[in-house]
Structure formats: structure tokens, C-alpha cells
DNA sequence: AGTATTTTTGGTAACCTTACCAAATTTATA
DNA sequence: TATAAATTTGGTAAGGTTACCAAAAATACT
């Protein structure tokens, strides 16, 4: 195996000491211009890159952040990840991706345990900080294990979670305003005159589902009776929306006036099911949703949903994480009321374009 | 700062030497069962994790793979990434994500240079191998720079690219069969009796576009004249498909019989544009595509496309990469003829369900 | 029992860099 | 010119682990 070129070798070639080469590498000002130039030339000429490993050993920094995401196939998360990456890169950080696939895949406890072991190993070993993106901390049983895992760590790598606060968990939480999100879309449907409104998607017993459903019910209560037969949970994928819609069609003589989908992917499944029955939103039923995933403007119909402002969320989370990493005093950032209603077609507020069949 | 617990500390507590603790950590058989149990107990009790950094220093391994992807928001890539992750994890590898965003975003050369510097630094420093997923090596100018970057590396980290072979590039390529993909979908449309077929999407001057377009033309040539006015390039996003379709509608009195979209996202844009004009595939025009991204079965219409079998692609790429990392003789894997036609609705081969409006 | 063999254990160099302190050199000041 | 101060350079420990060789202990063999 070809021997790696080291700082020692560079020093030898430049006829100087490793200390001085190290200073050039770290832009330490106390190097004479002439020597600096000479050394830099030799560095360039050899395409020398200092070993991150050795650097990390002495500085206790790896310039790597772990990003834990429950489902990398969810466009909502990839959007968030790319926001995070855009902010992390300029700060000199690289992202270590951990895809746990714990969201609504019906994993059993032992699978989860394996995940967590891997997660711990990674966190311990080679990252300066950890960013957890929702999901995997939702399912109660999983959350519990993650919390205990977090708390047993020797690692001082700080953890920031974008998601719902979990009691007893020693991490900083950047909470998405689930209540406001669902309230916004529900109010929108109510304002359009709908009263018989259902809620579709999400996994029973999972916190994000409970929270969104609770917000839905709370908003509805003042205006209308809640029809429990129009609340159909399942999971977060398009198929879930499809099946729920099919179930509602099969069990109800008449379509409800409106539906709130737990997210855009579920709504996509609803649209597909409606189409299979010759129906469409918003003409036959109004459908609103949450998350504003990247394809909302291309769905048929274009989806009316609630944007969570991922770019802000990502920036805030990283801001906190950097402060924690640098052991700075945590200063507050503006977090309030991010969710914003995006009105497109699927609720009928804006009429579909003329010329439609 | 709390001092990190080390192997030395464990050895002290166990009343043994660091060597023996290290042996326990690495499942070295030459440790007596009694001592092993005792040491393991102390390890568990202290939640001790050996430092990856120190390990890496001496073993020259980081158990980390860099995954370079041009656009993490592309569901096709995330699908591929999750396939890769599923295969890498059991082998003990973690993925370092590098999102270059060089696909069709019109970056200028200096941006690219920044990317490449970051890319080099990461590759050099802390990964055992590199996996490049298409895209970023497509654009000629980018490819050139990447190649020279790759070739100047001191790092012996092997590189495997899932994408088109680039001359002079010192990496192993797992090629997707672009020709066959496009040929399959084009032949399908031809077999359905269509002759006036257009090609939409992709970025001019980019290799994947050229290759797919060439395959389209080659397949068409035997059966039909090629109408250049029905070839509208742009990029790889839904908006691109939307705009292209709008352009075709604006410049042609009559709709063409069929369209081949460069990928499913572009097709999604086409569908949306058609809907805005009261039109739909396949009734008014047949639309076929490539890539089989994860939502194809929920689009309206369900898209007929070509699957690239990412799970196989990911497995093969990783298989090669592992062999290279372990300095094993490279043994061939089956790679042939992965692309497979997925017939759904958008070409009209399978009639849409009854009961549609 | 005494020796040869095998199994188990311990000590230490090496991996590559930075931090820190001391030494050498240059520049400024009396 | 001699001395003080500032700048630049060099030497070496430390960081946490594994690899390797030597030593010790346990076991087998004559």
C-alpha cells in the first residue's frame, strides 16, 4: 500500500519543521511570507490534504454532523435536508446521513434496537453534533428508547431535534407548530362553508398524528359535530390516503364535504382514489393538507396545504446546534408562527381555470 | 470539559492491560472467557465506545462511505440512496452525504470549483470509498473538473460511479442502460401505433440527455420521420415538462400522438399542463417516461415508465466498492438488461378503469 | 517432574496532527 | 553597540487506538 503523504514529508521537502507546515495549513499568521509561499507551493504540488482523523484526535472536532431522518424517501424531509446542507456547508460541516426508516413501517422492537445501537455508535464516535428530523422520535416506544440511548451517551455531542418535544429527553427541540398548521387548513375549509369534514392519514398512537388530530378536532368543535366515521388513520404514505378514501366511499352513501389529509403524500393518494371513481377535488369534495412538499403545484388538483417553512426551521436548528457545539450561551431565535396557508386549488377557494372539461 | 472515557480507563478498572481490552473490543479469540466477561461488563457499565478517530488513525479505516448526489430532492436518487444505505449498514458502513446540486441548476464554473474543493477534501480525509450517483458528472464541464480532481487525489479511496462512463476517469462505472430504457418506452409507444412522437425534458449538452435523446431517435428512425419541433429540452424538473408541453400546445395546431418524457418528474409537469388545457393522457396524447420514481402509481394518469431496478444497481455498486476497498480481485456481477417497462395508464396500453368521466 | 507447546497477557511503537513552550532570529530602542 | 522586544521557527508531548513482539501462564507430552 502506497504510503500516505504526511505533514512530515512536506516539512522535509520544504526543509522546515512540521510545526511551521502546520501553521501554514491553519493560516496561523506567524509565518514569514517567503516561507509560507514556499511551503504552500510544496503542499499544492503534492496535493497534500491533512488527515482529518489526526486533526480530530487532537482538536476533538470532526466537522461532521449526523442527520437522523426517519424516511429519506419523504420529499418533505429531503427538502429539509437540503436546507440544512446549504447552511452546514459554508460553516465547514459535512452531513452524515442516518436513515432510520422507523416511521410507520411497523418495525418490531428488536429492529428498533438495532437501529439505536447503530445510532449510538455513530453519535459517539465521529460527529460534533446531531440533528434529528421528526418522525423516528414520534412512536412512543421508539421515543423512549431513543431518549434512554441519548441519555447514556458519553458523547458530549449536542442534539437538536426538529419535532415534538419529548419529556425527559436531554436535547434541544425546535418544534414545528403542528397545532397551527392543522388549525389553518381546517379553518380554511370551515371558512369556505364546509361543516362535514373528515381527517385522513397518520398512524394511530403516534404523537404527530395525535397532535394534528387533536388540533383538527379542537378547531372543528366550535362549528360542527365531529363525525368519527370520517376519521380514518393508517400511516403517512400515498397508499394510506388511497385506502382511506376508498373506505369512506365504500361506507358512505354520500361524499363528505371536505377532508383534511395529514400530509401531501396522503392527499396525493386521496386524489388518485377520487379519480378512480370519476371524482375530483374540489368539485366533488374539498381536500386540504399539511407540509407543502415540493410537488404540490403539479398535483391534479394543485394542492392547498400549509407550508412549514423548512428553510427557516433548518436554519434555526443549525443555529442552535452551532451554538451548542461552540459552548456558547444559547440565544433565542425567532421561531413563532411559521406555518403558512398555501391556497391552491384542492379546497376550491380559488376557482379552477376556465376551459376545463 | 468532561474527560472522555478511554480504553486505558477501562483497562485500569478491569485490572488488565489495554491490549486485552482492545482484543475484547475486536472479538479477538485469544482472551480467556472469564476475563472477557469481566471486561465486557465494565465496558457496558461505562457505556464505553472506542474512538473512531483513533481507530481510523491506526487501521486506516473510517467505515464511512461518501455518497455524492447531484440533487437530493430527486425522488429517484433518494430511492437509490435508501437502497444503498440498506446494503451499507449491515456491512458496517455509514454514509456521508454530499449534495452537489449541480444538475440543471445553471451553476457557474466558480461554484462548481467550490464544490469540487469540498468534495476533494471530504474524499481525501475521512472516507473509505466514494459512490457517485449520476448527475453531477454529466455536464461536460463539470465532469472534466471532477475527473481531474479524482485523478489528483492522494487518497486511495476507491470511487464507483453509477452513471455514464467518462473517458479518462480513474473510477469504476456501473452504467445504467440508458439506451435500453428509452428504447423500451419508445418501442412501446410505437407498438401502440403511434408515429408522431415527441421527446421532452433534459438539459441540452448534458450526456444523459444526449444519450437518451439519441436512443429515442435511433428507435424512431426505422418507423417514422422525426419531427424536430416536438423535441423540447430544458432540464429535469416538473416545471420543465410543464413549459415544454405549453410550448408544444402553443406552436402546434394539433397535439402530437405521443411524448417521451426524459423522466417521471418531467412527465408530471406534462400531465399538469395537459390538465390545465382540459386534456389528459392517454386519451388525448400518450405519454411515456423513464426512471419509475416512487409516486408513479399515484399520478393522474398512472405513469407508464421504465424501471431501472435501483435495488440491483445499488447492490452492484456497493459490491464493487467493497471489493475495491478490501483490495480483492474484482469479480464480475450480473449487470445486464436491468431496465424494465412498467405499463400503467399513461400510454393507453392498459385501458383506464371503467366509470371514469 | 521436566520440557515442549499452546494459550493468554502485557508493553510499546506507530498512526498524523496540533498545542505549547523554548529557542533562534529579526527588528526596534536606548 | 548593546539590550530589549517582537517575530519566526523548532522540538516534543498528547490524543486513543491497534499491531506486533515478548513475556507469562496454562496445558500437553515424554
From TrEMBL, chains A, B:
Sorted UniProt keywords: DNA-binding, Transcription, Transcription regulation
UniProt entry tagged with the keyword Repressor: no
Matches recorded under SUPFAM superfamilies: lambda repressor-like DNA-binding domains, Periplasmic binding protein-like I
Domain HTH lacI-type: 5-59
Keyword Transcription regulation: yes
SMART domains, per the entry: HTH_LACI (SM00354)
InterPro entries to which the protein is assigned, alphabetical: HTH_LacI, LacI/GalR-like_sensor, Lambda_DNA-bd_dom_sf, Peripla_BP_I
Single Gene Ontology MF annotation: DNA binding
Name of the molecule in the record: LacI family DNA-binding transcriptional regulator
Amino acid at each position: 500500500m502506497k504510503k500516505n503523504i504526511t505533514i512530515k514529508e512536506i516539512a522535509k521537502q520544504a526543509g522546515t519543521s512540521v510545526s511551521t507546515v502546520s501553521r501554514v495549513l491553519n493560516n496561523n499568521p506567524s509565518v514569514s511570507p517567503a516561507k509560507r509561499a514556499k511551503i504552500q507551493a510544496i503542499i499544492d504540488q503534492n496535493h497534500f490534504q491533512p488527515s482529518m482523523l489526526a486533526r480530530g484526535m487532537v482538536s476533538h472536532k470532526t466537522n461532521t454532523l449526523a442527520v437522523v431522518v426517519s424516511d429519506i424517501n419523504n420529499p418533505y424531509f429531503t427538502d429539509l435536508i437540503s436546507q440544512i446542507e446549504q447552511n452546514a456547508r459554508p460553516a465547514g460541516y459535512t452531513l452524515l446521513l442516518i436513515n432510520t426508516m422507523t416511521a410507520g413501517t411497523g418495525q418490531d422492537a428488536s429492529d428498533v434496537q438495532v437501529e439505536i445501537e447503530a445510532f449510538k455508535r455513530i453519535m459517539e464516535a465521529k460527529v460534533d453534533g446531531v440533528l434529528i428530523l421528526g418522525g423516528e422520535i414520534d412512536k412512543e416506544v421508539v421515543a423512549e428508547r431513543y431518549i434512554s440511548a441519548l441519555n447514556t451517551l458519553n458523547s458530549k455531542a449536542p442534539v437538536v431535534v426538529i419535532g415534538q418535544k419529548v419529556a425527559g429527553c436531554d436535547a434541544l427541540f425546535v418544534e414545528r407548530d403542528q397545532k397551527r398548521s392543522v388549525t389553518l387548513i381546517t379553518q380554511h375549509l370551515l371558512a369556505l362553508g364546509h361543516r362535514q369534514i373528515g381527517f385522513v392519514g397518520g398512524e394511530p398512537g403516534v404523537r404527530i398524528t395525535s397532535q394534528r388530530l387533536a388540533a383538527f378536532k379542537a378547531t372543528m368543535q366550535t362549528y360542527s359535530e365531529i363525525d368519527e366515521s370520517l376519521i380514518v388513520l393508517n400511516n403517512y404514505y400515498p397508499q394510506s390516503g388511497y385506502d382511506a378514501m376508498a373506505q369512506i366511499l365504500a361506507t358512505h352513501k354520500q361524499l363528505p364535504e371536505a377532508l383534511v389529509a395529514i400530509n401531501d403524500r396522503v392527499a396525493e393518494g386521496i386524489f388518485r382514489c377520487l379519480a378512480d371513481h370519476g371524482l375530483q377535488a374540489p368539485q366533488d369534495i374539498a381536500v386540504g393538507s399539511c407540509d407543502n412538499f415540493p410537488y404540490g403545484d403539479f398535483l391534479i388538483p394543485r394542492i392547498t396545504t400549509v407550508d412549514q417553512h423548512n428553510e427557516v426551521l433548518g436554519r434555526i436548528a443549525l443555529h442552535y446546534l452551532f451554538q451548542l457545539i461552540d459552548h456558547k450561551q444559547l440565544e433565542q431565535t425567532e421561531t413563532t408562527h411559521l406555518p403558512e396557508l398555501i391556497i391552491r386549488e384542492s379546497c376550491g377557494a380559488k376557482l379552477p381555470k376556465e376551459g376545463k372539461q
